[in-house]
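Risk register update: the risk of archive-format incompatibility is retired. Evidence:
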Amino acid sequence: MYGPKYGILPSGWKAMTAIGRYGPVSAKEVCSHTTVEPDKVTRAVDRLVELGFVRREKDAADRRRVVLSLSPAGRKAYEDI
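Archived output:
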């Protein structure tokens, strides 16, 4: 239903829902909160970043870790769901 409106596949919605509910989180944590396989989470997150729904930033406490959070546009889409 929302796929055509936002241009996101089901795996993207699942990732976005995990990020919105539990974020900021790592991609590994997104996998643990969804049934989406790691390779699909990576592609979904890449697409969400490209669309401007998700921000990808280095963790200030652990520079090896990348954290994902919703952008303002992503938060709006998440709340619309």
